[in-house]
Every structure is written in structure tokens, then in C-alpha cells.
Design brief:
Blueprint (H helix, E strand, L loop, with lengths): L8 H29 L4 H25 L3 H11 L6 H7 L8 E4 L7 E5 L11 E3 L4 H5 L1 H8 L13 E4 L8 E3 L2 E2 L2 H9 L7 E3 L8 H8 L1 H14 L6 E5 L2 H14 L12 H5 E7 L7 H9 L3 H9 L1 H5 L4 H9 L13 H5 L10 E5 L5 E5 L10 E3 L1 H5 L31 H15 L1 E2 L1 H11 L1 H8 L36 E8 L1 E11 L9 E3 L13 E2 L2 E6 L5 H11 L12 E8 L24 H11 L4 H4 L8 H7 L5
Helix pairs in contact: 4-7, 19-20, 21-24
Length: 653
Amino acid sequence: MSLIRRRKGPEILESSNQINKPDEDVNKKKTKNIKSKNKWSCIDSCCWFVGCICTTWWFLLFLYNAMPASIPQYVTEAITGPLPDPPGVMLLKEGLKVKHPVVFVPGIVTGGLELWEGHQCAEGLFRKRLWGGTFGEVYKRPLCWVEHMSLDNETGLDPPGVRVRPVSGLVAADYFAAGYFVWAVLIANLARIGYEEKTMYMAAYDWRLSFQNTEVRDKTLSRLKSNIELMVATNGGEKAVVIPHSMGVLYFLHFMKWVEAPSPVGGGGGSDWCAKHIKAVMNIGGPFLGVPKAVSGLFSAEAKDIVVARAITPNVLDVGLHTLEHVMRMTRTWDSTMSMIPKGGDTIWGGLDWSPEESYIPRKTKQGNDTLSKGQRNINYGRIISFGKEVAKAHSSEIEMIDFRDAIKGDKVANSTCRDVWTEYHEIGYGGIKAVTEYKVYTASSILDLLNFVAPKMMTRGSAHFSYGIAENLDDPKYEHYKYWSNPLETKLPNAPSMEIYSLYGVGIPTERAYVYKLTPSAECYIPFQIDTSADDDEDGSCCLKDGVFNVDGDETVPVLSAGFMCAKGWRGKTRFNPSGIKTYVREYNHAPPANLLEGRGTQSGAHVDIMGNFALIEDIIRVAAGATGEDLGGDRVYSDIFKWSEKIVLPL
């Protein structure tokens, strides 16, 4: 008979404690792991935020595309009344048909770029879009994307082992991203009267490169010349209507000089090539004389939109991610950005105590929209950069300026830990940064010296491809160099008296003209300067200074002065810049926002990109493409003070 013995009480407790101890240790480890998993980094927040926006956007886009096409139109008509016919439908009813072949020249950032060769981190992206489309790689592998979108800092061409090339065809720039049109609406309306790919050509190019380097690397200018010649030859000898947009305006100015110049630097077409092949150049939102926005972009990787974003989500831009530092490193390798630095110096843009637009200030309407109207106070917009609100408004005699040009650079801003976000500011050191702030005020003339001081590598490359002055003698042989060809103040229009040039742009939107800056509190590993968002001027209801930005009339990107001056005065009639007397026309489109969300970006927008869907602009373009002249359109149509401001500019013609 077996004996059954009971465990003693203490022994039972002791053994049970020993059994439970491992369980407790496991639970503690689990709790610790859960806590560690719950830590939420800045990168997680950024990715989550971007992911939510993208998911919401794609979901709304899916719903919009899934519903029958008649539903949005029905709802819109129920709210606003019957919609007008699109310009293409209306003009088809009038009997307009295809006549002149049409060439589109896209601007900066609106053309798609795709990968042809890359590093290991870009595996699987062959011929996938790095720019345009979904922008999926931006948030999937952001540093790899920056690496491949950057150009070589010495040559301005491809870095070793990387080939990014422009997308070809009409799809290159019809949509910038899904649902965000650029050229698509204009193309669709031209198709209504019979246009198709044999009568339309998208002159896609790598907008990061300097204009001459697009020919050196890709033969883009040669292909543009050949395609225009082919289209003219296959369309009964009808000359082409060229439609450049934004920076594409400067690119085509360069082309018109290149095509006439002898090879190998030029296209060898001769002095009459433009007269034989081009009926009209219809420039949309052209930054002929540059834009102040380019200065803030190169100086601190900022613009008005960035200032607003910083105010809403400062951590995303300024802490941990170094977003703007990466953007600056990338964009400062793009030589094309330097084509839009303001041209003409103080003669065009004004000095310390004057500017052409000085009597004009933005005001708010009863509806709360920022519009522009005349004011009693004179605002000096000539000071493109001012360090401090008081400096921006003081008389020049009250400002003590210490010259920065001979300042000793040194005392590095950062050490090797900042190499991932290294910019040229880390080379000039604290001494150079202090010297920049002590100069206090920069006009269009001194801006060039400033950029040469803070970004010498970039400006050394840029000075080989672009120029920003005013020619004294256009017959001087030095102006045969290609670096002058995109500056309308340093080159002549072609000898083509039958050709027409239009300046088409939006007005009625506050547009960046000058900036109030401050020194960044923490400079290590950061861009040392930033727009001072605390600088506002709403004392009497005016908003000429808002979030550190002075605004004037324009299309939200290009001020009226830059878009309209050449056609209003510089090229008007026979001048030294227009010796053959090519007819010029200024056509402005007064901005009207969409009446409701179902109108999308509106059909009367004057904004820099949204104007591409403006029905009045599209109608003007189609009429000219179908054979009309500027006189048939009614000549100039002006809402701004462009002629008044142009008269204030003393420029020998």
C-alpha cells in the first residue's frame, strides 16, 4: 500500500513563489516592451501626418471618379445655375478649326522626371517618376529621393551613377499629380476644335538644369527646333504658336537666341528662323525680370507657404527632420532656380527709398479675401530683405549698415555631426552670419553680393549660365554669350516683325515682393536665417506686411512688374530690345476664386498655376491658334497699374 505524503505549508508557498517569479519577470518585460513600443518619435508623427493626408486625398479622389460624371455638374448647376460651355465647345460652334500647330513649354517643377539609373537605395524604380505623379518615393525613402533629385554641386549635371530624365509626350506635364491639372484643361479644349498629337507638342525638359545644359546633356533645344520645323512642314507651312508657362518663358527666350546663333554653341538656324517658324509667343505667368520668391528660396529655403507651414507645424520643419536643410541642399544644386533671381537691379526693382509700386498696398475686402487697392501710405518694396520690421520701414538715413563683403569667414557653425544636413552656411561660420545681419538691408543690386557671400559654389555655377544686369550696348560682342540669352534686358528679340508676343498673367492676388528676416535662435545644424513671422502690419486694416512678407499685386508667385513690364514698355514699339518692332500685348486676368468646392480650382482663377484652367485665357489662346491676331482679341486688357509703374522706371530704350 502506497503512502501519500502532504507538502508542508511553507514549502508549498516557497515553491509556488518560485514558480510565480518567472511569470512576474515575463510580465515586467512585456510591460517594458509595451512602454518602449508606445514611444512616438517626430519621424513617426510626420509619416503618420503625410499618410493621413494621402489616404484622405486618394479616398476622396476615388469617390469623385467613381460617381457618374453628371452628378457633380448637376449639383453645381443646382447651386450656381447653368454652367457655361467650355471654351473649346463654344469656339467650335463659332466654326473655329485647327490652323497653327501649338507648342507647350512647361515651367519649373511642373514637368515629370523619371529615373533611368540610380544607386542601390533606388532599386526597382527604373523609369518610375521621381517627380510628379504620386510622389510616393518622397515619404517611402525620402533621403534616397533627395539624393537622386540633386545634381552635382560642381558641374550642375548628373552626379556619378545617377540619371534622371524628363518624361516625354503630352503626359509629361498635363497633370502635376493625380487630380491636379497643369496643361490638361488647355489640351482638352484645343482637342475640341480638332487638335491632336500631330498638331500639339510638349517641349519637356529637365527643369533642374541650366538652360544651355539641357542642350549639352539631352539635346533638348535641338529636339525642340526639329519638332517645330516638322510641325510647320506637315501643317501646310502654318507657323507655330508657342505657349510657355512660368520659367518656360525664360527657357524659350533662351531658345530664340540659341536657334539663331551659329553652331556648335547655337542651333545654326540663322537670323530669320523665328520669322519663318513662329506666329506668336503667348507667355503665361512669365517671370521675365525674375521673382523675389527665388531670393527667399535660395537664401533660407522659404516662401510665404513655408512660413505658414512653420507656424502650424514648427516641429516638422525645424526639429529633428531638418526638412528645410535637406531642401536647401537639393535645390541649391538646381541651376535653373538662379534664372529667376531678380534682374535689372535697383533700376527695375527700386532702391532703399523708392520702388515702382510704392503707392500700392494690399487691403482686405468685406468678404475677408486679400485684394489690392491704392493706399495713402507709401510702402517701400525695394528692400527685398530687411533684418527687422523697424529696419524695413525706417528711412535709409536712419539705418547704420556695416559692409559684409570683406567679412572674415570662420568659427564653424557646426561640427561633423551635421554632415547629413550640411549647407554652405556651415562654411561661412558665425563671423560671416553676423556680418550678413549687420548689413541689415538688401536691394536687388546687393542681393547678388549677398548670395555670392552665403552660397559661393552655387553662384559660381550660376554666373556661368545667367546674368542679371542691364545692357548698355547690345551690339557689344560679349552679349553673344549664352548666359545673357534668358535676360530680356541684355538681349534683343529676333528679327521677326510679323511675330507677336503676349504677356498673359493673373492679377488681384497678394504676391511676395519683400521679406523681413531674423536670426534663427539655434543656429547649429540649422539654416541661420528665417522669415520673421511675428512681423505684421494691421494697424489700419492694411496688410502690406503679413507674417514677415510684403505683398504686391500679382498672381501669387510673379509680381505684375516682372510679368508685364517688357510687353508694356521694354518691348513696346521699336526699342533697342525689340529692333524689328514685334507687336506686344498685355492681357491680364482678374482673379475670382471658385464659387463652391464643386468648381474645383475655378474657371476664373488668376493664380500662377490655376490660371491654366481660366476659361478667358484658354479662349484667347485658342483664337490665336485658330488664326486670330492680338488686334482681333481687342489688344491690351489691363486691370493693374502696370503702365503707371513702368513709367516710373527710367530705362533707356
